[in-house]
Specification:
This protein is an alpha+beta fold. 57% of the residues lie in helices and 15% in strands. The chain has helices at residues 3-21, 23-41, 44-47, 51-78, 82-106, 123-143, 153-188, 196-216, 227-233, 237-268, 274-294, 301-332, 336-358, 363-376, 387-402, 420-434, 452-459, 468-472, 552-561; strands at 108-109, 120-121, 406-407, 410-411, 479-486, 498-500, 504-505, 511-517, 520-528, 535-541, 544-550, 568-572, 578-582, 586-600, 605-619.
Length: 620
């Protein structure tokens, strides 16, 4: 038997052993798969009536599979008693049932507008379930760091990575192969085969992939030297090369670039946007901590240099980040992005300090810190749905009171239009609060405030959004845009005899329709100028041009009424979403379904697009 065949057989044997080593976890994964296949089998009118039940089952079984992994690993690695193993499996199944009961009885809420079903799981409930699953998985990694007297979490973390990617590769190959066979059967033997077959294949492949993942782990009950565990934890040569000779030099080079970038910003005083800075610095901090753990057992001088220097450079970058966070909070208050950034910053700062003081011995504390912060993010008083909402509510009320728009808890339109910064702040806070889920909002606040027409009626001015350079930073090749959509309502077409829709598409992008009357045949053509990008309307009668008009003046009018970057997406009335044209022989009404204007700030290039709803025509 060659090495490749032996490797395949080991994977298959490992997946088989998962059924005996992790029975509760496999049982929950199998139940998850069964629920998925039932949802696939049921058609939508039936499926939607049981959507809440299926969601509760899916979340509880997903939790049960991961939670059981942790419990069973704790029993196997910490106790030699078979009763402990049996109890761990029973507890995993019992907790799964309890979680389902809690979700079904207390996790639901009435559906919001646009949602279907009699009940739905709240967003907060789903996030809390995600946190519970994540914490259970972190516990599994810690418990898999056998032996308990001297845990090696770096090896356990790598072993988990390795199991995940190996299972993923085998799963993808299995999915592609079986789906290919099914496609051949459908093409050659049974053309009426249901598309649901491919969904069933995907669901079953997911189950077997999970079994392969579990089966890759060694037997945690073995106290003495375990050859299989050594193989599972060992980094192959190509991984050592990848980490030590590819990723490590890249990270060191990135560190140098970030330090120089930080120095330039401090010297020039030109601060980038918070989103740009937080994204770069957070990726560097979190990625650096992960790489530090992966390089724990590397003995090269470069790896040792990185493990020594990274905590200091990480603290330098994080200190720079802290100032950007302070400026952002002063400017626009805390929102969800800033909230999670604060948690990430706390994690990164504490982690690099722990690495500086304790080196590899800090890994357990770092993983524990991740779990604590995840739990904090969904707690009632300090969760992601509480602090940002409180911050934006206070910000909005302060702005409204300053403009005398909120008096004794009653909202009234602005007597005079506020300055732009105030309008931007009010628009920003209103938009955030209107789309906040599971949040406690002020009694005077309505979700409909996010609608442009309602906003203008209630606040006395149009929605005014921050300029893109305030969000993404100056000098980027970004776009300022305006997107208008025709508002619903009646349309008086009594003055017109014919309506033309886009009926045919020609090679050059022209769409046209024909109208036959007693005077001849009208041809309506809608083309786009390839040089300017501006649409052109052309109407002929038996080949004679009656009207030829581009939309340049119309676009200029829209741009003046809705400057790009201010209105973003809005609905507009017929007066703004139509264009009337007239010649001695005909009069025309052009109605647009949507209009889009965008400006590339770097190139100062304007782009236009307009989609027709209908062209109405009347002979004179």
């Amino acid at each position: 038997m060659n090495s490749f065949t032996r490797s395949i057989m080991q994977i298959v044997q490992g997946a088989t052993k998962a059924f005996t080593n992790f029975p509760a976890a496999i049982a929950c994964a199998a139940a998850f798969t069964v629920v998925t296949m039932v949802r696939i089998y049921l058609d939508w009118p039936i499926n939607k009536d049981y959507n809440f039940l299926f969601n509760c089952l899916h979340w509880s079984f997903a939790f049960g599979a991961i939670f059981s992994m942790a419990l069973i690993t704790a029993a196997q690695s910490r106790s030699e008693d078979q009763k402990a193993f049996t109890l761990a499996n029973i507890m995993g199944l019992v907790c799964t049932i309890l979680i389902f009961g809690v979700l079904y009885l207390f996790g639901g809420k009435p559906p919001e507008v646009g949602q279907i079903g009699s009940n739905v799981l709240s967003d907060l409930t789903e996030v809390r379930m995600g946190v519970a699953i994540s914490v259970s998985f972190l516990a599994f990694i810690v418990l898999a760091g056998f032996p308990k007297e001297q845990p090696d979490l770096a090896k356990s973390l790598f072993m988990t990575h390795k199991a995940f990617f190996i299972a993923g590769i085998y799963g993808l190959v299995l999915l592609g192969g079986v789906s290919g066979v099914a496609g051949a059967v459908q093409a050659l033997l049974y053309r009426a085969m249901s598309y649901k077959v491919y969904s069933y294949i995907a669901a079953l492949t997911g189950f077997f992939t999970f079994a392969i993942f579990l089966g890759y782990f060694p037997d945690f009950r073995k106290r003495e030297f375990d050859e299989r565990r050594e193989v599972a934890e060992k980094q192959p040569r190509f991984i050592e090369i990848l980490f030590g000779y590819v990723m490590l030099p890249i990270m060191i080079a990135l560190t140098v670039v970030l330090i120089l970038w930080t120095g330039r910003i401090i010297i020039e005083g030109k601060w980038p946007s918070f989103m740009q800075l937080s994204g770069i610095a957070t990726s560097y901090a979190v990625g650096g901590i992960w790489l530090h753990a992966m390089l724990t057992h590397h003995e090269s001088k470069l790896a040792a240099f990185y493990r020594l220097v990274y905590p200091f450079t990480g603290l330098l970058i994080l200190a720079f980040e802290a100032w950007a966070l302070f400026v952002q909070l002063e400017k626009s208050g805390m929102k969800t992005t800033e909230y999670y950034f604060v948690l990430t910053w706390i994690f990164a700062v504490v982690s690099v300090i722990l690495l500086l003081l304790h080196k590899s011995a800090a890994h357990l504390k770092i993983i524990s810190l991740i779990g604590v912060l995840l739990v904090v993010s969904v707690l009632p008083m300090v969760g992601y749905n509480v602090l940002p909402v409180a911050s934006q509510t206070a910000r909005l009320e302060k702005l409204l009171i300053s403009q005398k728009m909120l008096v004794d808890g009653k909202l009234m339109p602005a007597a005079t239009e506020p300055e732009r910064s105030v309008k931007e702040g009010i628009t920003d806070s209103v938009s955030f609060l209107a789309y906040a889920s599971d949040a406690k909002l002020p009694a005077w606040f309505e979700k409909k405030f996010a609608e442009s027409e309602v906003f203008k009626l209630k606040f006395g001015f149009k929605q005014t959004w921050p300029r893109n350079e305030d969000i993404y930073g100056p000098g980027g090749g970004y776009y300022l845009s305006t997107n208008l959509y025709l508002a619903t309502g009646p349309l008086d077409i009594s003055d017109y005899n014919w309506a033309v829709k886009q009926q045919k598409y020609l090679n050059k992008g022209a769409s046209w329709g024909e109208i036959k009357s007693s005077k001849g045949t009208y041809q309506v053509a809608w083309t786009t100028n390839q040089q300017t990008g501006i649409p052109l309307l052309k109407i002929t009668l038996d080949g004679r041009v009656l009207l030829e008009q581009d939309l340049k003046d119309y676009f200029d009018k829209i741009a003046a009424a809705y400057p790009p970057g201010e209105s973003k997406t809005s609905s507009a009335g017929l007066d703004e979403m139509s264009m009337k044209l007239e010649t001695p022989e005909i009069k025309v009404l052009v109605v647009f379904s949507d209009i889009h204007l965008s400006v590339n700030v770097r190139d100062d290039k304007i782009s236009h697009s307009a989609n027709l709803d209908t062209i109405y025509l009347q002979e004179k």
